[in-house]
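My current task is to audit a protein record that another person submitted. I need someone to confirm that the token line plausibly describes how this chain folds. Take the sequence as given and treat only the tokens as open to question. This is what I was given:
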Amino acid sequence: MTSATEKGTDIYTLSLDCVHCGLCLPACPTYQVLGLETDSPRGRLYLMRALQEGRIEDPQTVRLHLDQCLGCRGCEAACPSGVEYGRILDLQRSELEEKYPAKGVGASLRRFLLNRVIAYQGRLRLAFRFLRTAQILGLHRIAAALRLLPSAAVLLMPKIPAARHRRPLTGSFEPEGIPRARVTLFTGCVMEQLFGDINRRTLQLLLANGFAVDIPSTQGCCGALHHHDGQTLTAQRLARKNMAAFADAEIIINNSAGCGAALKEYGELLGDDQARAFATRCRDVTEFLAEQGLTAEPAPFPHRVAYDDPCHLCHGQGLRAQPRELLAAVPELQLVPHPNPESCCGAAGIYNLVHQDLAQQIGQRKLTDLASSEAEVVVTGNPGCMMQIDAHRRAAGSEIRVMHPVDLLLPEEDSG
């Protein structure tokens, strides 16, 4: 386990790579909205370095600027010096949470939900069962009116699927004929409960393309939300649980950009060779299928489609061409460009719940860019992005549909 002193040393040393050139500023969503140096990557790095040098008396004064960072890592793609901004930010948030825990009802509630609900799959399933009932009865709107629930939560939350769509997907599945390879599917926590059908379609897609699929029942949350919130011990526990669940897997497929980035960073999170080896076996579903090739032709999709890059796929994993290559293989699909496809949509895990105003402004910019393409469908491979874009679409009365890449890659017999 890394001590607070070791974290501080790493933060300081890594921050020295920044040469203050400012090329990151145009890539930073919060700087573009607020125009403040302290809410830019360069400014935050300066604050974190000053904190490590003991030049800031009250560490809490730094917290707001760090918390307002989406962690999109767009700055990393723009940085000519290779500054590992995302890693530095996670280390600093962890150190702050360890030495100076955030105070207040909101912080306590966030820690409770992350560490006592989301971290336990059984409890999360029970929570979604309750939320489904509350949504049917309209209790969520009453709670928002009484300010017991953030209004953003009501706007962002899609209709919670019926129980049959939220059932855990587990077991071993064989394709027709001789398998090309055997893979293991990571189904996640939010993906299972809100986008369970996408997990099932991912399974269908892999089977249709000749891959045998195993889905272990002992897997759980990837720990991304906890890690980015500074809850490092919980994130490490979840990482070890998943490593045990996938111990025999040669290839681990996921369909959520945020989860995929977290899985690939278990080596940094745990700091051992076993975790680093695990990370090398993880693949986004579009990464894997672009590498292996489709053997089943996707069903025709005669629509204008805008592909929007999830931050943790393009910046976090360096995957940009692969989803587009696969979409280009869909008959009759017209892939149309839009401005700033790699800019953050404002979702960023739970960011759009705890920083509603900023997330609203960033999300509105994204919708404006997407609408300018005159696309009929927006495709993106991350659940948070799908919910954020869809919420802004609904608020604007737009008829654009939001879909996951696997929705468009299924062969005709499976696409219904």
Observations:
- The chain has a mean pLDDT of 93.
